[in-house]
C-alpha cells in the first residue's frame, strides 16, 4: 500500500472464532497506537454484559521476562486473559535459519515440525480410519488425506517438555541436508540463534487448559460411519484468509481516502455476513443476492405493508453506534485529524492520482486474478501493486514519502461455544464469551454478536437469544 501523504504501514484486524472481523484499523505504529482499539473492544464486551474472553492469540509480544506482556497490558481489565502465540507464526520463525529457499525441503521441514508440536486425537483418528476402511471395502492399508484429517479429527499440543526434544530431533535430521546443487539447507549459525529464541516460546504455543478450541459443525457419512465435522478456533488462520480477500474489496488500484474507507467497510460487511451464515451448524442456503442491510430493511417494510409479513426472516436492525473508529478514521484520529466527509464532491474530479493510471498496464490481467480470488504475489511471487491513499500530513506539516508495503498485523478472537443450529437460530449469529484469540485469534462462547456496524465504526448487538445476536454493518 502506498500513501500519497503519511507513513502508515500497519493494518490491524481483530476477529473471532467464526472468522468474522470485529475490528479493522489502519495505524502508523504498533504498541501504544493500538490502545484505543483495545479499550473500545473491552468496553464493547462490558456494554454487552458478557464475560470477557479467556484466550488471546497473538503474533508477537506473547510474553515478557518481567511482568505482563505488552498485549496483556493493553487488555488489563481482562485479568483472567491468557495470551498465547500463534503456532503458524512460531513455525514461520524457523525460516530465518534456512540457507536456501528450497520449497521441497521447506515443506518437508514444516511437516515434521508440525508433527513435533501437535498430536491427533486417538479416538477421532480411529473413527476416521474405520470409515475409510469401510469405504474401501475392508482395505487394511488406507490413505488419509490432510483435508480429511483437518475436517474430522481434532489435535492438541503435546506440551512444552515433550515438544522441545522432538523439535531438536527435526533440526538434527535436517542439519546436514542439501539441495540439488549441494547448498546446505540450514545455516547453522543462524538456526542456532533462531532455536535459542524460539525455545523460550514453547510454553506460549501450548493449548490453554480448560478451553475447547474445536466446534462441531455437522456430520458426514463415510463408508456407513457417521463422522463429525469440526472447525478449529486456534491461531490466526481465519485472519490470514481475510487478508487474502482484502484486495478484492477495492475495485481500483488507488482511491480517495473516503472511497477507501467505504470500500473497506462494505467489504467487512460482506465478509462478516458470509462468515455468520457459515457458522450455523446446518449452514442453510440463503436466497439473498446481496448484503445490503438498507435494501433488506426496505424489502421487509414493503412486504409487511403489502402482504402483512416479512420476506427476510433473519433480518435484524442495525444496533447503536458505539463510537469506535475503524479503518482510516482510526489513523486520522492518531494524527489529530478527521476523515473528510466530502460526499458531495464531484466523483469525476481529480484527486491527484491521475498520473498513476499509466503505471498499471496489466490492470485487466490483475483484475481477472482478483475476480478469481487470488492475490498477485500468490501466483507470480511479485509484490502487490501499491494502493495510494491520501492521508493526513505529519504534525510538522511535511508530507511523508514512505512507500513501504502494508504489513498486516493479525488479531483474532475465538470463542468457546457449541455451534448453533438453524433450528434454534433464524439468523447468522456470532457467539462470544469465555475465550479469546487475539492478534491472530480469540476463543469465546455465550451469545453476543459484535461486528463492524456503521459507516464510521463497528457497532454492537447484544441479545438474550442467538436469533437477535446477528452481526450487521452498514451497507453501501
From TrEMBL:
Residues 341-363 are annotated as: Disordered. It comes from the Eukaryota. This is Uncharacterized protein. It comes from Pleuronectes platessa (European plaice). The lineage of its organism: Eukaryota, Metazoa, Chordata, Craniata, Vertebrata.
Amino acid at each position: 500500500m502506498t500513501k500519497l501523504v503519511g507513513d502508515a504501514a500497519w493494518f490491524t484486524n481483530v476477529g473471532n472464532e467464526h472468522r468474522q472481523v470485529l475490528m479493522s484499523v489502519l495505524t502508523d505504529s504498533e504498541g501504544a497506537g493500538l490502545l484505543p482499539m483495545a479499550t473500545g473492544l473491552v468496553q464493547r464486551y462490558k456494554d454487552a454484559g458478557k464475560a470477557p474472553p479467556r484466550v488471546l492469540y497473538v503474533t508477537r509480544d506473547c510474553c515478557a521476562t518481567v511482568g505482563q506482556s505488552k498485549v496483556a497490558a493493553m487488555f488489563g481489565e481482562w485479568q483472567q486473559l491468557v495470551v498465547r502465540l500463534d503456532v503458524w507464526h512460531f513455525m514461520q520463525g524457523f525460516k530465518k535459519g534456512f540457507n536456501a529457499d528450497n520449497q521441497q525441503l521447506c515443506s518437508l521441514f514444516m511437516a515434521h515440525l508440525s508433527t513435533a508440536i501437535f498430536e491427533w486425537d486417538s479416538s477421532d483418528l480411529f473413527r476416521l480410519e474405520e470409515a475409510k476402511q469401510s469405504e474401501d471395502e475392508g482395505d487394511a492399508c488406507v490413505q488419509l488425506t490432510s483435508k480429511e484429517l483437518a475436517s474430522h479429527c481434532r489435535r492438541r499440543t503435546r506440551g512444552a517438555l515433550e515438544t522441545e526434544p522432538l523439535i531438536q530431533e527435526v533440526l538434527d535430521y535436517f542439519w546436514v541436508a542439501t539441495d540439488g546443487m549441494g547448498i546446505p539447507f540450514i545455516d547453522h549459525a543462524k538456526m542456532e540463534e533462531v532455536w535459542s529464541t524460539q525455545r523460550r516460546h514453547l510454553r506460549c504455543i501450548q493449548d490453554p487448559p480448560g478451553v475447547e478450541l474445536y466446534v462441531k459443525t455437522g456430520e458426514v457419512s463415510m463408508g456407513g460411519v457417521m463422522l463429525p465435522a469440526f472447525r478449529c478456533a486456534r491461531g490466526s488462520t481465519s485472519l490470514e484468509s481475510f487478508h487474502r480477500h482484502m484486495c478484492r474489496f477495492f475495485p481500483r488500484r488507488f482511491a480517495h481516502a473516503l472511497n477507501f474507507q467505504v470500500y473497506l467497510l462494505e467489504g467487512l460487511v460482506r465478509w462478516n455476513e458470509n462468515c455468520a451464515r457459515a457458522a450455523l451448524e446446518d449452514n442453510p442456503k440463503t436466497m439473498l443476492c446481496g448484503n445490503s442491510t438498507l435494501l433488506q430493511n426496505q424489502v421487509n417494510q414493503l412486504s409487511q405493508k403489502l402482504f402483512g409479513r416479512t420476506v427476510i426472516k433473519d433480518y435484524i436492525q442495525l444496533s447503536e453506534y458505539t463510537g469506535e473508529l475503524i479503518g482510516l478514521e482510526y489513523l486520522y484520529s492518531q494524527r489529530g485529524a478527521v476523515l473528510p466527509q466530502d460526499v458531495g464532491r464531484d466523483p469525476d474530479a481529480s484527486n491527484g492520482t491521475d498520473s498513476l493510471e499509466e503505471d498499471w498496464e496489466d490492470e485487466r490481467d490483475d483484475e481477472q486474478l482478483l475476480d478469481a480470488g487470488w492475490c498477485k504475489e500468490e501466483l507470480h511471487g511479485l509484490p502487490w501493486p501499491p494502493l495510494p491513499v491520501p492521508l493526513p500530513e505529519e504534525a510538522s506539516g511535511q508530507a511523508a514519502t514512505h512507500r513501504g508495503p502494508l504489513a498486516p498485523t493479525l488479531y483474532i478472537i475465538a470463542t468457546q461455544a457449541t455451534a448453533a443450529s438453524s433450528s434454534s437460530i433464524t439468523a447468522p449469529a456470532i457467539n462470544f464469551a469465555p475465550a479469546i484469540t487475539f492478534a491472530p485469534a480469540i476463543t469465546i462462547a455465550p451469545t453476543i454478536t459484535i461486528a463492524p456496524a456503521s459507516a464510521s465504526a463497528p457497532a454492537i448487538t447484544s441479545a438474550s437469544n442467538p436469533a437477535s445476536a446477528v452481526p450487521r454493518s452498514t451497507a453501501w
